[in-house]
Amino acid sequence: MPDTETVRCFIAVELPPEAKRALARLQDRLRQGLGPEVRWTDPEAVHLTLKFLGQVDSGRLPEIAEAMARAARGFTPLSLEMSGTGVFPNPSRPRVAWVGLRGDTEGLIRLQKEIESGLVPLGFPREARGFTPHLTLARLRQGTPPREQERFGRQVVAENFGGEGGGQDRDGGPVPPVRMDVQQLSLMRSQ
After folding, report:
1. Of the residues 66, 68, 75, 183, which has the maximum number of CB atoms within 10 A of its CB?
2. Is 56 a catalytic residue?
3. DSSP string, 77-88
4. 33 vs 45: CA distance, rounded Å
């Protein structure tokens, strides 16, 4: 890659195959009764974003990778599980549907803060919003009528309780408790 090329990139944790399969099954349940206003995330592309960097000169990627390595020093693998569904910003006017995470989320939040701190000297500002660990399932298209927004929000939130077509998994909950061990970070290109 020539140094003058820019790439849109972010720092993330990639998911194991079993997590991607569980997300695909969950999306299949949620899709029922929803229309074209929902843009579903490809389960193969779902990841846990820790920091969005935006357009970056490709020549800067090595220094970003070094900042990531420094931030991760001293961390042991983190153990997380998928847990529950929700929407941002709220169920009556949702924009994003997500699956939450439980387990060593405090360690994950500390790691994310270390990454942010390590990138500030490189000119990447801290995020204004706090970090909420989640996996994005879908986004609503801009201009979706309020009634459809509400229906989408209700259906996603109802999935936590097995309602509105939400099937139960073998452990009785709507979101399979798939374990994910965070052992490495990835600098990913957004396409």
Report:
1. 68
2. no
3. PEEEEEEEEEEE
4. 24
Q: HSE of 111 in the Cβ direction (CA atoms, 13 Å)?
A: 27
Taking the CA atoms of 161, 167, 171 and 177 in sequence, report the sign of the dihedral they define.
Answer: negative
Question: Model confidence over 132-182: pLDDT tens digits?
Answer: 999 999 999 999 999 999 999 988 888 775 433 333 333 334 677 889 999
Res 161: pLDDT: 54
Q: Which residues of the chain are under the pLDDT cut of 50?
A: 1, 162-173
List, in sequence order, every beta strand (DSSP E) within the chain: 6-14, 38-40, 47-57, 78-88, 96-103, 134-140, 179-182, 186-189
- Which tokens is 156 given? 């996603």
Q: Supply the pTM of this predicted model.
A: 0.86
Active-site option among 134, 135, 156, 174: 134
Regarding beta strands 179-182 and 186-189, do their DSSP bridges make them parallel or antiparallel, or are they unpaired? unpaired
Q: How far is CA 15 from the centre of its chain?
A: 10
Structure token pair of residue 29: 């349940």
Set 20, 47, 51, 139: catalytic member: 47
Query: Is 47 annotated as catalytic?
Result: yes
